[in-house]
Structure of Nucleotide exchange factor SIL1:
Amino acid sequence: MLSVLDVLTNQKCVFVLVLCLVVFSLVASTESMDNDDVEEDNDEPFIPTNEWQQVKPGQAIPSGLHVKMDLSNGGKWAKLMDDGKTSQKSSLQLAPDANKEEEPAPNDIKGTYSIDELKQSLKKMKQEKKEASKETSEDIKSKFRSMDEIRKDFDALNLHQETDVEVMQRLIATLRLKTSDVKEKLAALQDLEYYVHQIDNAVDLFNIGGFGDVLKQLNNTDASLREEAAHTIGSAIQSNPTAQIKAYENGLLTNILRLISDSQQPIPVRKKCLYCLSALLRHFPYAQLKLYENGGFTELRNVYHQEVGETIKIKIIQLLNDLVTERQTTLLQDEDTHDKKEKLKQYERLPLAKLIKEDGWCKAIVDALQTDNHGSREMVLQAIKSIYPTCSQKFLEHGAMDAVLRIKMEYKTLSEEEISSNDPDGYYTLMHNLVSEVIGLLKNGPKAKDEL
Ligand SMILES: *[C@@H]1O[C@H](CO)[C@@H](O)[C@H](O)[C@H]1NC(C)=O
């Protein structure tokens, strides 16, 4: 499968090529007899026929011909238009294989691009970009840069491309319209979700007063809209402190917690709400504290013990793991900034370790190792590592050692198979290393005190 970046790059190449061809055909029609600008003059006249002929470097060609570029070998090819007449309309083609003499069937002509098709490509590209999940903000930035460049190309052709804010305003209007149906609203939310990945767009969503409209969709009677609203909000606030604060101020925490706790909600809705909750809480200790004060941790424990399926359970464990890990990294940070001091003050007010111990999480985490799913096990093993300082004794009491030894046997075999098939850094080998590390931790405690 092409990566999104590849798609972007390809689209750009095509675009630049089309621009070149437009320029080229202008040169061909206005300067056909007097081409001083071409590096290498070639006086031999080009006599077009119904067959493709290669245009020699520097050779002038009459206007109105079919012109195609040979992408693999370089060079241009030209022939008369199909009906034998020349035409003022330039027909642009990309020929993947110019050595093929036979003329492609009309349906077969790939790479003939009109402005409309380019717009379509850009739209499609945005769609595809949206589908790429788990992007780092650096990835996103570099992609947006490419998008900006493409936008400049459009500007060069005097085509107005809507700004991101204009697009978001249009999408919000769709959400507000009483006449929009579920399908239209869903598409609007999906498009918004794509736009708000960019940090500035997410902040603009609040500035243009659109956040409340998305938040309202969390109460929509249609489950797919509730799910997508949680997804959109999660993407808007993820790793975006300004948006996190604004979302909190707009009452996101209570709205999202209510859906997570509601056993009437379909699992996919609750899953996206957990994603959204996690995006709100990460590196935002004030919201974590408020979750605690609102009984949110107790709610999460109750949800965990409902029939919610493994994915939700693992997501809750992951959330705890993330909260514990971010505290540890904040504590280990060297610099003594005001920001760090403020964060530590708030972390102190939330007795996370006590909660984990008293709410039965030590046992729940050991029990979660029962799964056969490798990804889930990986997550649980990571959680054992990070939560070890809190649960060390309880992990052992609840049979953690037996559980990890059993898993280790399994990964030992799988890892050996991997290594014998020439894959020394395979997934099972990594898992085997991770289990071994956890066993070492359970046996001997942390290697050095300062690792706490
Ligand atoms: C959704 O409904 C609940 C209860 O019915 C209400 O408290 C909440 O404010 C509503 N949320 C929004 C964003 O309208």
About this structure: Residues 4-133 form one domain. Confidence is low (pLDDT under 50) at residues 1-40, 84-113. The beta strands are 53-55, 66-70, 76-79, 91-95.
